[in-house]
C-alpha cells in the first residue's frame, strides 16, 4: 500500500498537470511576433474586440512576472495561487481542495514541496507538465477563437476595465469552453477571467490576476 505522503505527491502532480491544461486555455493564445490584428496598446472596446483580446494575450505572455488567484468549481475544487517569474519559476500555493495547505516551487526542472512547515526536494520535475502553465499561450490558440464580443465597460476591484466574451477550445484535447475576460482599460492586460467548460470534471474557473506586483521566486531554504 502506498504511504499517505506518496498519495499526496501523486495527487499534487496530477493537479499541476490539470492546472497546466486549464491555464493554457485561460488566454486565447499569443506568439512571439506581433499579435495578428492587434497593436499591443490599450484596449479599444467595440472597435475591434478580437484584436483587443489577441493583443492582451501577447502582452500577458511577455510579462516578467504575475500572480494568478484561481478558484475552480467542479468534481474536484481548485483553490490556489500561482506566482510566475520569468523565465521558468513557479510558486504554487494550494489553498483548498486537493493538497490544501501544501506549497510547491518549480525552478527549471527542479521541484520542491512544503508539507508540515518543511521543504523537501522532489524527484526531477516532468518538464512536459510545467511549461503548459504559460508556454501553451501560442498562436495555435488563436485559430479556434470565435464569437469575440465587447460586453461593455465595468470595474474590477476599483480598476476601470473593458469586458469581452468569446468561445474557444483547449489546445490539448480540443475541449470547448466559453470565457468572459476583463482587460484593464489603460493597461490592456487581463484583470480577471471566468471560463466555463462543457466537458470534463472542472466546470468553471475564475482567475484574478495581479500583473503589477513584482514576483521573486528563489529556491527554498530547508
Q: Could you explain how this protein is built, in words?
A:
With 222 residues, the chain is mostly beta strands. The chain has one domain (4-33, 46-210): outer membrane lipoprotein receptor (LolB), chain A, CATH 2.50.20.20. 15% of the residues lie in helices and 41% in strands. The protein has helices spanning 4-23, 49-61, and strands at residues 65-74, 78-85, 89-97, 103-107, 110-115, 118-121, 146-156, 159-169, 176-184, 190-197, 202-210. Strand 2 (78-85) and strand 3 (89-97) form a beta hairpin. It is globular.
Q: Structural class, from helix and strand content?
A: mainly beta
- CATH class, named Mainly Beta
Strand content: 35-45%
Tally the helices: what do you get? 2
Q: Tally of extended strands?
A: 11
CATH architecture call:
Clam
Overall form = globular
- Rg calc: 17 Å
Strand order of the largest sheet: 6-5-4-3-2-1-11-10-9-8-7
> Could you please say which CATH topology applies here?
outer membrane lipoprotein receptor (LolB), chain A
Helix/strand order: HHEEEEEEEEEEE
